[in-house]
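Render this sequence as a predicted structure.
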Amino acid sequence: MRRLTAIILCFAFLCVPVKAREDTPVVALTFDDGPSGEITHQLLQGLEKRQVKATFLLCGYRLKEFPQTGQAIYDGGHEIGLHGYSHRTMENMSQAEVAKELSDTLALLPEGCAPVFFRPPGGVTTKAVKAAAKEAGLSLLYWSVDPKDWKTHNAAAIEQTVMSSVGDGDIILLHDMCSCSVSAALAIVDDLLAQGYRFVTVSQLAQLRSTEPKPGLVYSRFR
């Protein structure tokens, strides 16, 4: 009887979910405005070395200039989303104009890539933007941590800003347009890995938080 009880208890313990992984804080790194050729490749190499996946919101006109870099992002297992074709603000665009920005960019994505998210340039969202995104089956992606690396151009300052405000479930906004942003991004990765964080794509983060992104709706974090 005791042996039977012990066996039952062993199986019961095996069925208990592992809490350590659930308790691990997770964040998503996102990069806007690319791809940027060599700078993006430097970032991809650094992320690969650290076994970290990120989400890249790509511009159509830059995909046209750097198609091989867009393919490298996809081949590296990173998530790809849209950032419009021209990077023009969409504040005064009609739904048809926004839709064209999206379709022109979609046509340049690597074969097999099925994006989930669209981040309007500057985060400017109107009824036309939401309607076009919904029609294209895309959710609108904002962010919860923004060190404004595009104007800071100081890797240490960018790193400090992120580290002072980041938390579990956050979406970090960065750009792969200059070497200082790449240096800051990799330093942030090292800092957060040392603190026990885990990096995931935005889609993975949503899934971990039992959220299925809906087309046309806005998401800025998954806590």
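Summary. The first strand starts at residue 26 and ends at 32. Residues 1-20 have pLDDT under 50 and may be disordered.
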